[in-house]
UniProtKB/TrEMBL annotation:
InterPro entries: AcetylCoA_trans_1-like (IPR024371), AmpG_permease/AT-1 (IPR004752), MFS_trans_sf (IPR036259). Keywords: Membrane, Transmembrane, Transmembrane helix. The lineage of its organism: Eukaryota, Metazoa, Ecdysozoa, Arthropoda, Hexapoda. It is found in: Membrane. Pfam families: Acatn. PANTHER family: ACETYL-COENZYME A TRANSPORTER 1, SOLUTE CARRIER FAMILY 33 ACETYL-COA TRANSPORTER -RELATED. The keyword Hydrolase does not apply. This is Acetyl-coa transporter. Its main location: membrane. It is a multi-pass membrane protein. The keyword Translocase does not apply. GO terms for cellular component: membrane. The chain crosses the membrane at residues 42-66, 110-129, 149-170, 191-208, 228-251, 287-310, 322-340, 361-379, 385-413, 487-504.
Length: 531
């Protein structure tokens, strides 16, 4: 199978048949991104993804509020189950793809009910959330009310379940709402919209809910409460969900895939066929190669991503100040996808991905160097301002590399996904990508102590391996010192791995990019087998 490019002004990727006849498949053409007629669709997608980020951000804010109300870490762990739906949505994505009311729209059949339910949940939650959060204010212990963790967990689990279902529907709709040449912009709408929604639901809410922040920066006269309360915030966004969902239901028509817009005809499948289709997707050779890439690429960055911040806290950097460094990076996270998308809307979005990997590997070394020199920069628990500037610069550069990879791979997912089963296809790829980041994080966190060698300053026989040994060392008047820090061992191992992986992975990625779009079409593959 030969691949050749037309002149740059046409930017078409033509793939000949295996017979060598040189026949061009329409589905393998790539035209320059043409946003005429799609600006409104991009605005709608952006807003839908923004709405999706609101409950995600709120679910991240609740643990902070619970901590202020005296919740135990066991209760925090219980509430963490509220975040699970986005890691489980692959289980019901085939149902979202296969069950719908065709007259109303394949994606709207799920989008509209889920967003109405999110709005109703928020309105109901606004009436009871203060009681369920509990109250630890006042000196009278008898007046304290413990937070109702099971109800809060159930409510926010349901909210995130609905948000995850909305995500499946919007991901699938994006493939047909936009012209084929513009599907790369769907990843931009996703990353920018969801980040903006998360910022509103978490960062903006936490700031405006804080009386201290509002009194210091936003008020001329101090008050006991912030400008925003949680019930008021929930009530407002509940109404926004209901109103905007009604507008989308009435005014936005879901069109069938159109050949004029570069789409392919949709295929109707029942639930059993859709789950079987999911298995067929997983068994496809390109998907198997892509799976290997997604599950292994982030190992090279795992030590930096998972451990560096913890090491900074161990070195004496206040964790609240460390958390605040995220705030100035939020605008960068919103702007970056917009800039990067200019280079990922073409036929080879993963070239950006490949270019970002060496920079990200190098930045892991820079992060390790910052961790190494941090103790020397802190005097008497005082962290100088220039140190925070160094951290912010390092974080900012790392975010550029990270978002370059994220936007590029999302654009690639949008390009190769089969529109006939877009929700399932995209969800599978996103799940693999997320899993590829989660399991290395768990491993490197677990391995830090295993690889760290310690000793007691006044007893060489005590290796301070466990809490008993550490207590014995302290009781005897000594201190446990780190002779070899497992973090730096992991950084070294990840560095070597990352270089070796890049030597292998770049060829695999470029091979996948060279494949015609029909190589990723599982429905067409099934038709060929059945005929």
């Amino acid at each position: 199978m030969g691949v050749r490019k037309r002149p740059a002004e046409k930017e078409q990727l033509l793939v000949a048949k295996g017979t060598g006849a040189g026949v061009v498949h329409d589905e393998d053409k790539h035209e320059r991104s043409d946003l005429r007629g799609d600006w409104g669709n991009i605005a709608i997608l952006f807003f839908l993804y923004l709405l999706q980020g609101i409950p995600i951000g709120l679910a991240a804010a609740i643990p902070m509020m619970l901590q202020n109300r005296g919740a135990s870490y066991k209760q925090q762990a219980e509430f963490s189950f509220a975040h699970w739906p986005f890691s489980m949505k692959l289980l019901w994505a085939p149902i979202v793809d296969s069950l719908y009311w065709s007259r109303f729209g394949r994606r709207k059949s799920w989008l509209i009910p889920t967003q109405y339910l999110i709005g109703l949940f928020m309105l109901i939650l606004s009436l009871h959330v203060n009681r369920w959060l509990g109250n630890s204010e006042g000196d009278d212990v008898a007046s304290h009310v413990a937070p109702n963790i099971p109800i809060l967990t159930g409510i926010f689990f349901a909210l995130n379940f609905l948000a995850a279902t909305q995500d499946i529907a919007v991901d699938g709709w994006a493939l047909t709402m936009l012209k084929r040449c513009n599907v790369g912009h769907a990843s931009t709408c996703n990353s920018v919209g969801q980040t903006a929604g998360y910022f509103l639901g978490y960062v903006a809410f936490m700031a405006l809910e804080s009386a201290e922040f509002c009194n210091s920066y936003l008020r001329s006269e101090p008050a006991d409460e912030g400008l925003v309360t949680l019930p008021g915030f929930l009530w407002f966004w509940g109404l926004v969900f209901l109103v905007t969902t009604t507008l989308v239901a009435l005014l936005k028509r879901e069109s069938l895939p159109s050949a004029e817009r570069g789409h392919e005809e949709s295929v109707d499948l029942n639930i059993k066929q859709t789950y079987r289709l999911l298995l067929d997707i997983i068994k496809m050779k390109p998907i198997l190669i892509l799976t290997a890439i997604l599950l292994t690429v982030k190992i090279g960055f795992a030590a930096c991503d998972a451990v560096s911040s913890l090491k900074l806290i161990d070195a004496g950097v206040p964790k609240d100040k460390l958390a605040l460094l995220v705030v100035p990076l939020v605008p960068l996270q919103i702007v970056l996808p917009l800039v990067i998308s200019k280079y990922t809307t073409g036929p080879r979005p993963m070239e950006v991905y490949l270019k970002a990997i060496p920079y990200r590997i190098a930045l892991t070394l820079l992060a390790a160097a910052v961790v190494w020199f941090t103790p020397a920069m802190i005097y008497d628990h005082h962290v100088p301002y220039y140190y925070y500037l160094i951290l912010l610069t390092n974080y900012g550069l790392y975010q550029i590399a990270l978002y370059s990879m994220f936007v590029a791979v999302m654009a690639f997912f949008a390009r190769i996904s089969d529109p006939a089963v877009g929700g399932t296809y995209m969800t599978l790829l996103n799940t693999l990508s997320n899993l590829g980041g989660n399991w290395p994080t768990t491993v490197v966190l677990w391995m830090v102590d295993v690889l760290t060698w310690r000793s007691c300053t006044n007893n060489e026989q005590n290796d301070c391996a466990g809490s008993v040994e550490q207590e014995a060392c302290t009781t005897g008047g000594g201190k446990c010192r780190i002779d070899v820090d497992g973090y730096y061992i992991e950084i070294g191992v990840c560095l070597v791995y990352g270089i070796l992986w890049y030597a292998w992975g770049k060829h695999q990625i470029r091979y996948l990019q060279s494949l015609p779009l029909k190589a990723w079409r599982v429905v067409r593959l099934q038709k060929a087998h059945s005929s």
